[in-house]
Write a structure and sequence with these properties.
This protein has helices spanning 2-9, 20-44, 71-79, 81-94, 112-119; strands at 49-57, 60-68. It is an alpha+beta fold and 143 residues long. The longest helix has 25 residues, at 20-44.
Length: 143
């Protein structure tokens, strides 16, 4: 649970490195809270809704589905903007890449390279962004 909440403790820390474990547990935590927030929005009538419609006309069938976020979901989105950015920058630092690589996500299809980087193990030992978060040295290798 400590790794899940660590990005909230290091909310404005864009320096240093974050392990894969910290990054992916944070992502899991954020997704779980989004799901719960969406359910609460719908159940409490706070603007969240899911709609789907099927129209039959002229023999054509079209289905439209959409999700409208409610107030709880929007509040959670605003709360997590800075922690998401900081943990992502630190994760990129762990694989010895600049935090500016996050902008690759704005380019269609090239953003998949970011996913690749997020899944890579960090560099062993210290790199230009700080010491190894696993506490290793250059001579140690980790699985």
């Amino acid at each position: 649970m400590g790794y899940m909440l660590m990005p909230l403790k290091r909310i404005f820390d864009f320096s240093g490195r974050s392990r894969r474990k910290e990054f992916w547990l944070w992502i899991l935590f954020v997704i779980i809270v989004y799901i719960v927030a969406g359910i609460l929005d719908v159940q409490l009538g706070l603007g969240g809704s899911t709609t789907s419609s099927t129209e039959f006309g002229d023999g054509n069938v079209s289905a439209n589905a959409s999700f409208h976020a409610g107030i709880i979901t929007l509040i959670w989105a605003v709360i997590t903007i800075i922690p998401n950015l900081s943990v992502t920058v630190r994760r990129l630092h762990d694989v010895d890449k600049s935090g500016w690589f996050i902008l690759l996500g704005l380019i269609p299809l090239v953003g998949f390279y970011l996913l690749y980087l997020y899944c890579q193990p960090g560099t062993n030992g210290p790199n230009r962004f700080g010491p190894d978060p696993k506490g290793g040295t250059d001579s140690q290798t980790f699985a």
